[in-house]
Design a protein that fits this description.
Largest sheet of chain A: none
Number of domains of chain B: 2
CATH architecture of the largest domain in chain B: 3-Layer(aba) Sandwich
Strand order of the largest sheet of chain B: 2-1-3-4-5
Structural class of chain A: mainly alpha
Strand content of chain B: 5-15%
CATH class of the largest domain in chain B: Alpha Beta
Largest interface: A-B, 37 and 34 residues
Number of helices of chain B: 9
Structural class of chain B: alpha/beta
Shape of chain A: globular
Number of helices of chain A: 10
Order of helices and strands of chain A: HHHHHHHHHH
Strand content of chain A: under 5%
Helix content of chain A: over 70%
Radius of gyration of chain A: 21 Å
Helix content of chain B: 40-55%
Number of domains of chain A: 2
Number of strands of chain A: 0
Oligomer: heterodimer
Distance between the termini of chain A: 42 Å
């Protein structure tokens, strides 16, 4: 468990997998001896929020603690959006470019090449559709919930929706994005003929593995940090209206 | 997990409050409404998707005639008894409510009882949606990977196009894979088809 007093450089030194979190929080390196708390505050980041996310990333069994109540859902939502942006602008194009390069240099048959490239094109479409479903439906719902919870008398229409919908329903849809990548990884190492450019092939596999891990961790953050917090707020809003 | 919705029919404000606070901490649970001693929940049941009614002993005694006329309500009813010693209205129910709570229960016991109930309900609803494909679905994945259209698959398997569509939908939701290209790669790595057999124009 990472602690706010620890020097940030040690945290990153010892937990290499947190590296992709830095750009999402807009945290610049050159940490010197500054603590996690100091680095966060210098960059206008809520330290408790950073700790919740980082700890959820590091520990699969991590259960969010008191830190949960210390940040707003809009903070959470903007973090999720910046993670999506990272996938769309950086992670996916990076691996796509390498896959295309690997294919163009390979001795694969036309059929094998189109198997991989068609797969990746379709995967990208599904991936985008998944993210936009979140951005267009789930995240606005979360923000609306936060807004309604701040009001003395929440909108009756919203309450009606709450009685049959909960953030828990969104949870189950959520571990799927990495599955297809795993199939692709397996296809490459097991079924396709070996690639001449071994280094490039390894880079593709490394990128795929990193993206899979990131997607699992991101789903964890949503399921372990966002969902409980939203569920608490749903219950709060409902309990207030049922006692009126 | 689908949300389990609850209503409470409990005379005591303090007990109602306590139960609501426990229920709200459980995952996938909604308390739709609380009813006091003199309030009837019957009309509410007609317009709302209620999965469970938690009712106290006094309430149950008062509504015994209702339960006799609508025995199906027992399937939704969780009884909150004063103690395990007293048995009430033996004629109407003999252990046919899904769960019983006791006023003397500790929090852990109550949480456990409710979680078992929800778990059981989840098991029932997910029984038919296992991740594994059925033999028929596997055949369809194979044919899809070979480049056959739904209509061609229907003809080959002597099914209606509609049935093939239904299978395709079930496959999509089981695997979380929508595209033909995704299914093809799934089929290859699960040894449903070889690369040689795959359609050259996926």
């Amino acid at each position: 468990m990472i602690n706010r007093e620890w020097p940030m450089y040690r945290v990153i030194l010892e937990n290499h997998q947190l590296l992709p979190l830095l750009p999402r929080f807009n945290l610049k390196m050159g940490f010197g001896e500054l603590s996690v708390d100091e680095v966060c505050r210098n960059h206008g980041v809520n330290t408790d929020f950073f700790l919740e996310i980082a700890n959820a990333y590091l520990d699969e069994l991590y259960v969010p603690g008191e830190g949960l109540s210390l940040f707003s859902l809009s903070t959470m939502v903007s973090y999720i959006k910046s993670t999506h942006k990272y996938y769309i602008d950086i992670a996916l194009p990076m691996v796509e470019e390498k896959i295309n390069r690997l294919m163009s240099r390979s001795a694969l048959s036309k059929k094998e090449i189109s198997l991989v490239t068609n797969f990746f094109n379709d995967y990208k479409k599904d991936f985008m559709a998944h993210l936009s479903q979140e951005e267009e439906n789930i995240l606005p719902y979360v923000l609306e919930l936060e807004r309604q919870s701040a009001q003395d008398l929440p909108d009756p229409e919203f309450i009606q929706k709450l009685q049959t919908y909960s953030i828990h329903e969104f949870e189950k849809e959520h571990d799927r994005l990495e599955t297809s990548l795993k199939h692709l990884y397996e296809l490459i190492i097991k079924y396709l003929p070996p690639f001449e450019d071994l280094q490039l092939c390894h880079q593709v596999l490394n990128d795929l593995a990193a993206l899979m891990k990131d997607l699992v961790d991101h789903a964890d953050v949503e399921d372990k940090v966002l969902v409980p917090r939203v569920a608490d707020l749903e219950a709060l809003v409902l309990s207030r209206t049922s006692t009126v | 997990m689908r949300i389990a919705t609850f209503i409470l029919h409990i005379d005591s404000f303090i007990i109602r409050l306590g139960l609501v606070s426990i229920l709200n901490r459980l995952q996938g649970v909604r308390v739709l409404k609380e009813f006091k001693a003199n309030e009837s929940f019957i009309s509410f049941l007609e317009n709302h998707p209620v999965d469970y009614i938690i009712i106290d002993q006094a309430g149950f005694d008062r509504l015994v005639n209702l339960y006799i006329s609508k025995p199906e309500l027992l399937e939704l009813t969780i009884l909150l008894k004063d103690s395990s010693l007293k048995d009430l209205n033996k004629g109407v129910l003999r252990g046919d409510v899904p769960a019983t709570l006791y006023l003397t229960d500790e929090k852990e016991t109550i949480v456990q009882t409710l979680q078992n109930l929800l778990q059981h309900r989840d098991d029932l609803s997910t029984k038919n949606s296992s991740e594994d494909l059925s033999p028929r679905e596997t055949t369809i994945v194979r044919l899809v990977s070979m480049g056959l259209t739904n209509r061609q698959i229907a003809e080959k398997l002597f099914l209606s196009a509609h049935t093939v569509m239904t299978h395709r939908k079930n496959i999509n939701s089981k695997l979380g894979i929508k595209s033909v290209s995704g299914l093809t790669i799934y089929a290859i790595v699960n040894n449903i088809i070889t690369i040689e057999e795959v359609s050259s124009l996926p």
